[in-house]
């Protein structure tokens, strides 16, 4: 069959028109955007409006304000009229108890206390990158989270009173929720917690002297069967592992102990410390510390239960480093790179 050039031209024109029309962007980009001009929370389409914040929301840490900031987007549908608008933002925790009862939220879920976060009462929705979009940002106070160890925290957020277009009443509420311990893990860097300016001297008897130097190093000297030490406090979380280590150097000690403790009992001057037991140590009777040494204490230690510790409850712990005996050696025992940090 012979095909005329005019027929081919017509087919080509039709094909091009079809492609153009099918690719035409009819509406603004974004979930649930339709011709109906309404303002809504796109995450409200999730079952029960529940948003697992650590998985389904952007998290930003404000290291100056010490807050963990989540993002709850606000969209406005429609294909025209791109003037900015505002919506009122409020807390709505009325559904949380029922969702816990039904099993939609974990049994250990509790609503967030108003003192533990801040939330702006208005949000602006503006035209940006082909979307009429706003961002509600609950700011969670990181310092307040330790008291919620073992809990899931939930916060209901509602929008109302749009300054222009109508609010979609079916998509105007969400509940963000998160495991408190998981959020602390996400926002707390695993860095050395030791502060070289926070050491305190604790004296158990005459003869041994601990000196804290400006560079953070510590020198223990003397002997004569005396004993002295240094302490520093830290806040730890329940059932998390922490690791203590330090570099020690000396010329060799005689009838001497050098011990590290991490316990919950406060040290008392003049009274031996034993809470939690020895963690890592030099002990000349056990065979380490008698000859010159210059290495990590964990690699030299010949006494104690190990340098990784954990506690069943959160709270204050005391890092205690003490030494005593007949002689700490002609150069004493020098401590550098003292490190205490969470490892899981």
Which CATH architecture of the largest domain?
Answer: Sandwich
Strand content: 35-45%
Task: Specify the biggest β-sheet.
Answer: 10 strands, mixed
| CA gyration radius, whole angstroms | 32 Å
Topology:
Elements: H1 5-23, E1 38-40, E2 50-52, H2 53-56, E3 59-62, E4 67-70, E5 72-76, E6 85-91, H3 96-102, E7 109-111, E8 117-118, E9 122-128, E10 131-136, E11 139-141, E12 152-160, E13 166-167, E14 173-179, H4 180-187, E15 200-205, E16 208-212, E17 218-236, E18 242-250, E19 254-263, E20 280-283, E21 293-296, H5 297-300, E22 308-309, E23 315-327, E24 333-342
Parallel strand pairs: 1-13, 2-14, 7-12
Antiparallel strand pairs: 1-5, 3-4, 4-11, 5-10, 6-9, 6-12, 8-11, 9-10, 12-14, 15-17, 16-17, 17-23, 17-24, 18-21, 18-22, 18-24, 19-20, 19-23
What attributes does this structure have?
2 domains; Jelly Rolls; ten-stranded antiparallel sheet; 344 residues; ten-stranded mixed sheet; 5 helices; Immunoglobulin-like; elongated; mainly beta
Outline of the structure:
This protein is mainly beta.
Description:
The protein has two domains: 29-187, Immunoglobulin-like, CATH 2.60.40; 200-342, Jelly Rolls (Sandwich). It is mainly beta. It has helices at 5-23, 53-56, 96-102, 180-187, 297-300; strands spanning 38-40, 50-52, 59-62, 67-70, 72-76, 85-91, 109-111, 117-118, 122-128, 131-136, 139-141, 152-160, 166-167, 173-179, 200-205, 208-212, 218-236, 242-250, 254-263, 280-283, 293-296, 308-309, 315-327, 333-342. It has five helices and 24 strands. The strands form three sheets. Strands 1, 2, 5, 6, 7, 9, 10, 12, 13 and 14 form a ten-stranded mixed beta sheet that branches. It is elongated. It starts with a helix and ends with a strand.
